[in-house]
Each structure stands twice: as C-alpha cells, then as structure tokens.
Design brief:
The complex is a heterodimer of chains A (about 425) and B (about 475). Chain A has 16 helices and eight strands. With about 425 residues, chain A is α/β, with parallel strands linked by helices. In chain A, a hairpin with a 7-residue loop joins strand 2 and strand 3. Helix content of chain B is about 70%, strand content about 0%. The chains are: A alpha/beta (about 425), B mainly alpha (about 475). Chains A and B meet through helix 1, helix 10 and helix 11 of A and helix 10 and helix 21 of B.
Chain lengths: ~425, ~475
C-alpha cells in the first residue's frame, strides 16, 4: 500500500467529520442552552422556594386594580424566594392583621392605631416578628404603662391595597372608631410613588401612551406569526416582553438576590444610584415627575392629618428608609446631588404644617453597620431583623418626649405605677 | 469602548470582518488604520486632548528617523528624552507639579506606546543587525504604535513580529477552525472580565468593608484573607480576560499577538511567576534592562564567584522598574521594591540551596512535588501581599494593616500560604487527571465539542449578567498604567 492510499481514507473521514460539525456544533450549543436554562430554573426553585397558600381566601386576586380590601376573618400563607420562612397572614373580622379582634379600650391602656402600607403590615414576615407586634412590649417597658398597638396597615397591591390612596381619608373614620390615643403613620418612599401612580392611573389620559396607534386605523386582517414577530421587534416590545418573561423566572430573582447581597455597601449605593428613575427621591433636585408624585402624596397627607386633628387625635408620622437610603445614612457620605434625608425633611415639613407630629428615626441608622443587610435585597421590604430595628428606633423616638404621654419613665416611676395598678 | 464591553467586541469583530474582505496588505493596513483612528476618536472625544500624544508620537518618529539614518550618536539623547517625556506626560509625582500641563489630555495607552517607541529606538541603534535596521515608514510606525487591539493594555508586541503578520504578502491563514477558536477565546475573555472579575471585585470590596467595621476578630481574620486572596484573582481575570479578547480580535485580523499569561498561579517560584504573568512586559524589561545591565556589571566586575550575585542585582533592578512603571505615586516604589526584592531573594535562595546541597541535589529537590506545591503557595501569598501597594493608597494601606495586630496578620499569611498550597496543588492534580481523559482526537476536555459547551455556557451567563441583570463590569485595571 502506498503512502497516498493510507492517508486518503483519513482525509475523507476528516472532511466528513468537519462537514458533520456544521450541524453538530450548533446542536451541541442549543442543547447546552436548553439544559442550562432548565437546570438553573429547577435549581433556583429548589433552593429558593416561594409558596403562596390560600391567598385567594385573603385577597381579591382577580380585582384588576389590586386595591380591593382584605377579606375579613381569613388566613393565608406566603413565602417569598428571599425569605427563609413562611409568613402567616391572619386577618380579623375587620380585615386587619392585628393579631386580635378590636375590643373596647381597657381603662388605663394607651392605644396606638398603626396606619401605613406593606412595611407596617409586615409583608413576608410572621406577625410576631413585625415591629407592630414587638412595639407594645418595648413601649410598655420604657413607659411603665400598658400600651396597645392595633395594626390597620394595608399590604399594597393585591394585598389589601396601597396606602394612602384617594379613599384613605374617607376611611379614616374606621381608624377613629378604634378609639386611638395616637395614630402612628409609617411612611416609606414607595408610598409617595404609589400615591402619585394612582393619580396618574386615574387620569383621563390613562393608556393612550401605550396604545398601538395602528389599532384604530389599521387593517383588521389577521397577521402572520412572522409579521407579528417583526412588528414587535420594530416597536421594541419584543425585547420588553422577553425581559418581562425573564423577570418572572425564579432564576432571575435568585441571581438578582445573590448579586445584590454580594455587593459591598459602597458598591450597592453606587449601583442603585445608577438607576436614575428609582433613585429620583434621593436626589437633591428630583425631576418634575417625582415632584408631581409628591404633590399627590402631600394632598393625601394633608387630608388625613387634618381629619385626625379635627377629631382631636394626635397623629404622629414617621418616615422609614428603604434599603439604599438606610445604606447611605449608615455609610455617612453620598455622591454630590443626592441626599438621603431630603424626602424625610419634606414629609416632616408637610406633616408639621398640617398640624401633625413627626418623629425622626433616620439618624438612628447612622449607628448600624450595613443596615441594608436587614432588608430583602430584591423585594426591598425589611426582614425580621429589619422589623426589630424599626421597633427599637420607634420605641426610642416615641419615648424621647415627642409624645408627652409616652415619655420614658425612670425605674422608680415605673415601680410606682406598677404599685398603683 | 476602553473596556471589555459588548461595544468593544462588536467594534473589533466589524473591523476584522472588513479587514478580511481582501488579503491585500494595503487593504488590511488601511482597515487597521481606519479602525485605530476611529477607536482613538471615540475615546478622545475632542482633537485638542490628543495634541500631547500626537507630539509624543511625532517626536518619537523624528528620533527614529534620525537613528535610522545612522545618526545614532547624534540622536543618543532621544532615549532619555522619550523616557522624560513619558514621565512628564504621565505626571509622575516626584516631578514638581508646576511643570505639568494644566489641561486634561489623552494618556490612555501611553505606557504601551512608550514601550513600543523605545523598542524601535533601541533596535534602530548602532548595535542592531541589518534586519532591525530596515527603514520604518511613518504609516507602519503609526500602525504599530497605535494598533487599536494593543493600545489600551498591550500586549507589548515586537515590531518585527507585527510587521511579519501585518505586511505579509501571504497573511496568516484563517479557516473555520481558527475562527471558531478565536470566537471561543473572545467569549472566554468576556466572561472573565464581566463575570469572574466582577464577582471577585465584590469579594474584595466586602473583605475591605468587613475589615474596617467593628466586628469580632475572627470575622476580621476571615475578611483579611478574603481581601488578600480576592485581589490577585480579580486582577488576573480582569487583565487576562481583556488580553484574551484582543489576542483573538487581532488573530481574526490575521495578526498573531504574543501571549501575556501562562497560568501564572501554577508558578512554583516568584521568578517563574514573572515568566508567566504579564509576559510581554517582563520580556521587554529583561531584553532592554536586565541583559544590558548584566553585561555592564560583568564587564566591570570580573570575579567569577561574584557572577551569580550580579544576576541577583540585575533581577532586583529589573523588577523594581516593573513595579515602579505601574504607577505615578510612592506606593508603586514600595510595590517595585517588593517585586524586585521577591525576585532577588528567590534567586539568592536558589543560589544558596545549590551551594549547600550541591547542584544535583538541588535539581532533584526542585522537581519534588511537595517542594513545588509549597513554592506555589509561597509565590501566590507573596504576590497577594504585595498587591496592597498596587491597588490601595497609603491611607487605605494604613487602615488595612491597623485593622488587626501584627500577630494576626502573620497568622493570616501562614493560613494563606498553607491554604493556597493545598488548593493550588489539588487544582493542578485535578487538571492533570481531567486532561488524561482522551478520545482518538486528543483530550476530551479540549475537544471542539467541549469548547462549544464551555463557550455557550459562558456566553449565556455573561449575557444574563451584563444585559439582563445590567451589572456593569469593572474597568480594565491596566488601562490606567
């Protein structure tokens, strides 16, 4: 056999093998993508379970606005992928997550009615670990008198509706019916955004921006899949839709959670501030859209504070920071053009000018290293540790003299009061 | 564009595609010039900021032209002048501040341009052979010094290597296999910079944050280890990832750039480490500093017993200069001393052991797996500690070292030495065993099917992290030098 004879079959084999690769290599690539996507999602679901048990029995999940009130006497459970425990939501006959029914106020008891949104309701946190549940004991210890906290906070969209809304002031009589000695309103940056969004959503121009201009005049002829696909690419809705599908996957939540949790405080602040829209409320000069949202919120605030004042009930508002705000305050410095205290200052001015009182817990976050670790990184609500911190700060500020009836007593005074009882 | 971004990769791929429309060297040079000028224009944003760089390049070419015309003696000043111009333009802090230009100007890639210009001037000198003495025109000079693939962070290519590929009548072949391998390398580089480096940087920043907070000492010890280990790994992912991308892009343009890394953390000694880390820089300085300096010293000190120790001195000077080159401030002087000191002590250790044990016994010891493993751990931990003077300023260095006492720092160093010895030894063992899995075509783990799986996985993760999760990659560290 000659040299050529020996090499020829090998060359032919190699050519065939190379030709086969044009099909085989893309197929290997495609298979890898499928395996990766499926295994990542399965692994995420296994390691970061998220469960919702009986939510339909507590909330009107089919209500398109998401603002419907909680169903009375209901119980359901929810665990977010970021949480390690399943939180029970048990609502009383008035639809409140108060831990007990609202009864007549026992003599000598100081009753605080808590209003606010999901943070105050303790979303994703078992009730006994929420600040609303921890606060009575803390306050009673500080003041030496019996203090009761009745939680009327709502849980946000599809969890009893946001707070405040246009109807919130109309429902203040329910709050007053609880015979509060003090109404404690817990305000968060999200409440300001939600108040503005609600107004925008109710505007007569609602939806016009997102409507397909061709829908009214265009042909009614059904379009092919390809033309729909091409049109969605041209409009940019394809990438948006793809992104929204991605956002719904557990893989997306888990990856975001891990990435945010792995950031140092400095890097977290920087990356949060890069998102101009989210960080608007932290700017020293927020844009017109944010200012308009604040105006809507301010109107609600004025109405609620005014009604409480007219009813002769002391209303105390407190501003609780969100995750980036807490991180900035703890770090102690922030980029030029931003101020984590600005929104609180504005809220305080409004509350005080409307005749309410304000307690300031933001500076207390200076003393905590990395307080952002006590929030769920993606969802942004405080976890059980975050709720405990809020409880500590609220107790400190409420008993500092801002509310004379709650001024902290000395140990002798506490002993005397116990003796009297 | 000055980082391993999607835009930079797309820009490079478009340039490569255009370059391959014709095999003519004129066409390929025109495309490279156009791509380079576009790249510089995008980064510079205004023509005014380019004036100092243009002046530097023009004066470099002027000196080169004089030397090429045989006026080497008359143009002897050109080398110190280029060094001074570089130091002045880079604003080294040992020069009085009032001498500096007080307007912002473009210095990106100046260090690498400096090495290329200096290389051309030295090679055009008297001692150069006829090959090096051939005239270099202004366009080839610009193509070589400004080549967009090597502008930002190298690698530092020799002119003859560049000219061999760029001006070849028969350019380097570019078949589907080569294209596939380069695309895989681009993805690998992109993944290293945008995913690995990003995560390692977070690890380092978290370590730094933890170290400076009021936490128990055991947390601080852990943070100190995390901080020390993460940075060299980050730097490797960041720099070698970028180099992977540019080497692959250049190869797609039919230019073979020199390799800059060769698994540096497998090095069993600090001397070996510098043969594997930023290879083109250490090769440049060995050629133009170590060798001439050794020759001069050997001529002056003729004692044969001193000869090996002259090498130690030359190593110190060479690697001290490597350290100092990295930055303009006094931190880099210490960094240089630690690099030079590390290499010099390593060389002395080898000489002493050879004298005490005898050459053969020393050679046997150097082949011993346990000796190699401990040497590897020592090399990594030494390099990792010297890195504090690379990335931190004096204030940060003070904060880091005062966070825990001397004894705990010693414990950290010991843990690192033994820990990295064990981890790197296991990694080497695992790698060797995995590579033993073979098919008829070679190692199964480096087959084209395996490469497609790696590339797809890395591309998907990098896409998710950069596009969907919008995580910005850290900038290329070496672009600052």
């Amino acid at each position: 056999m000659t040299q050529t004879d020996r090499t020829e079959p090998r060359a032919v084999k190699e050519t065939n093998s190379r030709r086969r690769d044009w099909v085989l290599l893309p197929a290997v690539s495609l298979l890898t993508i499928c395996l990766l996507a499926v295994s990542a999602e399965l692994l995420s679901r296994w390691l970061y379970p998220s469960t919702q048990v009986g939510l339909q029995s507590c909330f009107a999940m089919d209500d398109p606005t998401g603002d419907a009130a909680v169903k009375p006497n209901s119980v359901c459970w929810e665990q977010t992928a970021e949480s390690t425990f399943k939180a029970e939501y048990r609502f009383n006959s008035r639809g409140h997550r108060a831990g007990a029914e609202l009864g007549p106020k026992p003599p000598g008891t100081y009753r605080i009615v808590l209003i606010g949104s999901s943070l105050a309701q303790g979303l994703f946190v078992p009730r006994e670990k929420t600040f609303a549940a921890l606060l009575p004991e803390e306050l009673s210890m500080e003041t030496g008198r019996k203090i009761e906290v009745y939680n009327e906070a709502t849980g946000g969209k599809f969890r009893g509706g946001p707070f405040p809304t246009q109807n919130s002031a109309q429902h203040l009589d329910e709050v007053l019916a609880a015979q509060p000695d003090l109404i404690l309103w817990v305000i968060t940056p999200t409440d300001v955004t939600n108040a503005g969004s609600k107004e925008n959503a109710d505007s007569p121009y609602k939806g016009t921006l997102h409507e397909d201009p061709r829908s009214a005049t265009g042909s009614a002829k059904p379009r092919s899949i390809w033309s729909k696909f091409a049109a969605s690419i041209a409009k940019g809705t394809f990438s948006e839709r793809l992104k929204s599908h991605w956002e719904e996957t557990r893989t997306s939540i888990v990856l975001k959670h891990l990435l945010i949790a792995s950031e140092s405080q400095d890097e977290y602040i920087k990356s949060y501030l890069r998102n101009e829209d989210d960080a608007n409320f932290l700017k020293t000069e927020p844009d017109a859209k944010w200012q308009m949202q604040f105006e809507y919120f301010d109107a609600e605030l004025a109405e609620i504070t005014g009604l409480a004042k007219n009813a002769g009930v002391n209303l105390v508002a407190v501003f609780v920071p969100n995750r980036p705000q807490a991180a900035m305050i703890s770090k102690g410095d922030w980029p030029v053009g931003y101020d984590p205290f600005k929104l609180e200052d504005e809220v305080r001015d409004s509350v005080v000018s409307d005749g309410g009182h304000f307690i300031d817990i933001l500076p207390d976050y200076r003393g905590i290293p990395s307080p952002e670790r006590d929030y769920f990184p993606v969802d942004g609500h405080p976890d059980a540790d975050g709720q405990a911190i809020i409880c500590r700060f609220l107790a400190k500020e409420l008993t500092s003299g801002a509310v004379p009836e709650l001024k902290a007593s000395t140990s002798t005074e506490i002993a005397m009061q116990s003796g009297k009882r | 564009m000055d980082s391993a971004s999607v835009q930079f990769v797309l820009f490079g791929l478009i340039a490569a595609a255009l370059s391959n429309l014709s095999r003519s060297r004129v066409w390929r040079s025109n495309v490279l010039m156009l791509a380079t000028l576009t790249f510089v224009a995008i980064l510079a944003k205004s023509a005014l900021v380019l004036i100092p760089l243009a002046a530097f390049l023009l004066s470099g070419y002027g000196a080169l032209a004089l030397r090429q015309r045989g006026w080497s003696k008359g143009a002897a000043w050109s080398i110190p002048a280029v060094i001074f111009a570089y130091v002045w333009l880079k604003k080294y802090t040992f020069l009085p501040e009032r001498f500096f230009l007080d307007f912002p100007y473009f210095t990106l890639g100046l260090s690498y341009i400096f090495f290329r210009v200096l290389h051309l001037l030295i090679e055009a000198g008297e001692g150069a052979g006829p090959e090096e003495k051939r005239r270099i025109g202004f366009v080839p000079y610009l193509l070589y010094t400004l080549n967009f693939t090597t502008l930002v962070s190298g690698p530092i290519q020799r002119y003859d290597e560049f000219a061999r590929d760029q001006f070849a009548v028969q350019p380097l072949p570019l078949g589907p296999t080569v294209i596939g391998l380069q695309l895989e390398r681009i993805i690998r580089g992109f993944f290293k910079v945008n995913v690995w480096a990003m995560l390692l940087q977070r690890l380092q920043e978290n370590g730094l944050e933890q170290l400076t907070q009021p936490v128990p000492v055991e947390y601080k010890l852990f943070a100190a280890i995390q901080l020390t280990v993460a940075y060299p790994l980050f730097l490797y992912a960041n720099f070698s990832g970028y180099i992977d991308i540019v080497i692959a892009l250049a190869r797609l343009m039919r230019i073979q750039l020199p390799e800059n890394f060769d698994r540096p953390f497998s090095a069993s000694s600090f001397l070996d480490f510098w043969n594997r880390w930023h290879i083109t820089l250490s090769r440049w300085l060995k050629t133009y500093v170590y060798n001439p300096l050794l020759m001069v010293l050997m001529r002056r000190i003729s004692s044969s017993s001193m000869e090996p120790f002259l090498g130690v001195i030359c190593f110190f000077v060479t690697f001290f200069l490597i350290g100092v080159w990295h930055g303009r401030t006094s931190e880099y002087i210490v960094f240089g001393m630690l690099q030079g000191g590390g290499v010099a002590i390593n060389k002395l250790w080898q000489l002493c052991l050879a004298r005490i044990l005898g050459r053969k016994a020393y050679k046997d010891l150097a082949k011993n797996a346990i000796y190699i493993a401990f040497g590897r751990g020592m090399t990594f931990s030494w390099f990792a500690f010297t890195m504090f003077w690379f990335w931190a300023n004096w204030k940060q260095i003070g904060t880091i070292f005062s966070a825990i006492a001397v004894a705990p720092w010693f414990a950290v160093w010991l843990v690192m030495w033994f820990g990295t010895t064990a981890v790197l030894a296991m990694w080497e063992l695992l790698r060797t065993e995995l590579l033993k899995i073979r098919t008829a075509e070679g190692s199964a783990l480096t087959s084209r099917y395996a490469l497609v799986v790696y590339a797809t996985t890395m591309a998907m993760i990098a896409l998710v992290v950069t596009v969907l999760l919008n995580q910005p990659a850290p900038g290329i560290v070496y672009k600052a030098f």
